[in-house]
Amino acid sequence: MGDLSGNYEIRRFPAVSKGKDGYAEAETWGRAVGFGFHDSTRTPEHVARSMATYEADGRIFTGAYQTGTPAQHSLPAEVPVATFGTLRKTLNIGFGRMLEAQMVTAVTVRTSHRRRGLLRRMMTADLQAAKDDGVAVAALTASEGSIYGRFGYGVASLERTIKVDTTARFNLRHQATGTVEVADPKVLLDVAPKVFDRVHRNTPGSLGRQEWYWLLASGSMGRDGKEDPAIKAALHYGPDGGVDGYVSYKFAGWDTTPATVEVVDLVAATEHAYLELWQYLAAIDLVERVSWNEAPVDDPLAWALADPRCIDASDSRDMLWLRILDVPRALAARHYPADGRLVLEVTDPLGLTAGTFILEVKGGQAAVERVPAGDPEDLVLDVSALSSIYLGGISPVTLKAAGAVSEATPGAAFKAQQMFSVERPTHCLTHF
Ligand SMILES: CC(=O)SCCNC(=O)CCNC(=O)[C@H](O)C(C)(C)COP(=O)(O)OP(=O)(O)OC[C@H]1O[C@@H](n2cnc3c(N)ncnc32)[C@H](O)[C@@H]1OP(=O)(O)O
């Protein structure tokens, strides 16, 4: 009998592309991730291409490896029983301010080793290490809603799937100021990062994108790892002739009724570019519906349509989960549109940043001071609730009504809502 006792060694190593030292270990790690997400179809070419993008992102792989001899005939010891990936990109925290974020991804634990604390062990160590490194927030997108609250993550942005009726009913009240033209999708390899960068700088809740996005949008690498010849692209040109938006999309096939175009990526750096890309999508002949899985919940499209019921949006859900690692750093980094003073008592299930903090905002600038417990506080909340309200996308008043924030000073939740609000709707276009 092999060792099933639950003795594990945790190893961390960087992603490397094929041909470099460490590739075998990285590739084996990647295959364990595939196993965890029920993806058994990755060819060696697909793995190699993915690994090249992971290297470009600077990803760090963490794996848990059995220290004893694995059970006879079972997977060998070099295959990790648990995986945990991270990368660092900037997070837009409102008003154009950026904060480096620890992005957590590729979390899997082999079925035969689950519920032995491996996720907790990897998560706890990684968040502590990120904090020690000076990173003030961590972020992830969750496979299930019940896993990450216990580690101090809170839902900070939402998204929804929309199906837009683009028959004659579709009528946008907007006079175009630019133009849209069809392009070879491959131009997105060059154009998409530049357009996205503008959106990223303008959108609270936006996270920097991993390399894979440009390959996906341009049809260079579909989710199956192969070229995707079905991808089409259109660019939006602003009044100055520069490209300020793009949409990458594909036809769902003649068997789908009504005839549908699926948006793969829609990135618009201006309000007009957004509406005009929708005008373009709605004008595609032989198509009666356009669907998009990553649409904002607070969507100007609904307000620009003569008939907002053209949008069928039944599926609104959590998108970005945020975890503040260092309350003073995170709060001081933000700009606040309303002045005020709040005393926050923050609890933290991992003990990383619990305490009582005075947030004092004058002229939009914050001073944050940690004070001894016992100071009369205005709001008492878990770090997950503070993380939810941090990007202005979730209302503290709603969290108070839910019992997730407790108000010691009447009106403090509303004051927090005003102070934490942001200049435009919080939305994250980066899945990872
Ligand atoms: C950011 C991302 O990558 S999202 C993708 C997450 N991965 C997946 O969904 C893949 C399939 N699932 C898995 O691989 C595993 O079941 C995991 C990663 C979700 C959990 O790993 P485990 O090692 O079993 O978790 P661990 O034993 O450390 O449990 C930690 C805590 O989370 C809880 N927990 C674990 N999984 C779940 C779940 N699916 N739902 C609710 N609670 C959960 C445990 O009960 C435990 O609670 P406690 O410590 O408060 O008592």
TrEMBL record:
Segments crossing the lipid bilayer: none
Domain Eis-like acetyltransferase: 205-324
Every Enhanced intracellular survival protein domain range: 327-425
Residues annotated as the enzyme's active site: Y148 (proton donor), F432 (proton acceptor)
Keyword set, alphabetical order: Acyltransferase, Transferase
Residues binding acetyl-CoA, per UniProt: V107, T108, V109, R115, R116, G117, L118, L119, R120, S143, E144
Pfam families for this protein: Acetyltransf_17, Acetyltransf_9, SCP2_2
Gene3D superfamilies: 3.40.630.30, SCP2 sterol-binding domain (3.30.1050.10)
The keyword Transport is annotated on this UniProt entry: no
Subunit note: Homohexamer; trimer of dimers.
Similarity annotation: Belongs to the acetyltransferase Eis family.
The name this protein goes by in its record: GNAT family N-acetyltransferase
Annotated organism of origin: Arthrobacter sedimenti
